[in-house]
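Supplementary Text 2. Reproducibility record for the structural model of the 322-residue chain.

All settings were left at their defaults, and a single model was retained for analysis rather than an ensemble. We include the record here because the model underlies the residue-level annotations in Supplementary Table 4.
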Amino acid sequence: MGFWSRPKFTRPRVLSDKGIMGMNRRNIDYIGRYNPRRLYPLVDDKLQTKRIALACGVTVPDLIGTISQQHQVRHLAEMVQEWPGFCIKPAKGSGGKGITVIVRHDRTGYTKPSGAQETIDDLERHVSNILAGLYSLGGKPDVALIEALINFDDSFEGYSFEGVPDTRVIVFKGFPVMAMMRLSTDASDGKANLHQGAVGVGIDIGSGRAIRAVQFDQPVDHHPDTGRQLSELQVPDWETLLQLSASCYEMSGLGYLGTDMVLDKLRGPMLLELNARPGLAIQTANGAGLLPRLRRIEALDSQRMSVAQRVDYAREHFSIAS
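Retained model, structure tokens:
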């Protein structure tokens, strides 16, 4: 499929023949088979993910603090007063729900990326909703994480609107098999969530260069808000990012997972979160199916391969040039 070619509607059998993986196969053959349920809490809880990442020497955004009890909510303003910007996240949230980003604050209030103003009462109410489980999986009581903002790399200027671009890499048995970059838009309210309107850019595993881009499952040439030509996107420090993603296999124990990475201008690639049930839209962004790559890895004797060897194998065999 060409870079900006428009997909046509087709039958499920045709998609299967092209190696496109559906949700049932993902759930049964890969998530159910390769992801022990006892390990889910490590990735479903962002606080636990952060702890195991730090223990393994993996770079993550700075944690300003946590709020786990209602009586702690009134200390929010004091907690963030020395930080120019910050992000409030539910520890057990998913799909970008419940995330509030504040880029600056002063006596007049707290400013979101869109320029909208929030008061401390607004933010405290939001934290209370997080604690009540409004955004958590299963509606269970949750913890609010307060994190420092990421200073995204200057090379991504114009590729994202009012938000930090991140890179999703699907890792299978320690091999990075497919990647995409998620670019926030006005439609997605500055969040890198494709279902909310972010742009998904398929990234070539071999080179870190853009393959094609979609928004709402339709091909796009330019970022809808900035006008930046998406075909020019190149992810810097690509090999380091892939090695960091691949190492999450040993760190988490999960055989099939999604790693969400960002590139900080000062600290380089860092891990945002892990996902034990990564979505399938990455196939649309790449114009390719996951199944041929997953089956190739399943047929490979890889037990003695190092992280670097696995990355080299993926870059050689899953590049669009191969």
